[in-house]
């Protein structure tokens, strides 16, 4: 029974980590798409700002995946 509880706890943690990582990657993808749209409209200042945000999201995703720990909600900046 103890082994089942440990496995279930581990699985729940992995699922939560997956969801957090997936949400960061979604925000990353959206930010990248907006940056590309601004480049196509020749709005280079706005595009540069979104490229910087995209890099921030990419670093958050890498950090989350490499550490295996879920980020605190205060560490994730969802504003685009």
Write structural notes for this entry.
The chain is mostly helical. The longest helix is centred in the first third of the chain and has 39 residues. The model has no long low-confidence stretch (mean pLDDT 78).
Largest sheet: none
Mean pLDDT: 78
Output the structural class: mainly alpha
Terminal Cα span: 46 Å
pLDDT < 50 stretches: none
Work out the radius of gyration: 17 Å
How do the SSEs run, as a string of H and E? HH
Number of helices: 2
Helix content: over 70%
Number of strands: 0
Please report which band the strand proportion falls in: under 5%, 5-15%, 15-25%, 25-35%, 35-45% or over 45%.
under 5%
Shape field: rod-shaped
Distinctive features:
2 helices, 0% strand, 80 residues, mainly alpha
Question: Could you provide a short overview of the structure?
Answer:
This protein has two helices and no strands. The chain has 80 residues and is mainly alpha-helical. Helix 1 (2-40) packs antiparallel against helix 2 (44-67).
Topology:
Elements: H1 2-40, H2 44-67
Helix pairs in contact: 1-2
